[in-house]
Amino acid sequence: MDFLAESFNQKAVYWGSPSTDGFGKLSFADAIEIDVRWEERQELFLSATGKEEVSRAVVYSASQDFENDGYLFLGELTDIDSGDLDTPQNVTNAYPIRGYYKKPDIGGNVYFRKVWL
To answer: Taking the model in full, what pTM does it have?
Structure first.
């Protein structure tokens, strides 16, 4: 899958490790910048709850594991106001991850990841 690495020529910001504070408010790990391929397209997928949904975008990565309810933003960390880096819900065009898929290559050494927003 090394040939796919050339396809990951866009930057995205990822907020992972979502956890609730007991009152329904999510908190996240620090935002990080990653290499992705981001496609604005609708695709039918099964959500984490097993429900059929339609995506607004599909994002691919070879280097980052993702979690449901994490957030992705197409752009760089410098594109986001520093006051919003802790709260992805306040970032325009940052979307929650509603489903993900992780697949190893034939040797089991390299992983291909796909998420639906």
So the answer is: 0.89
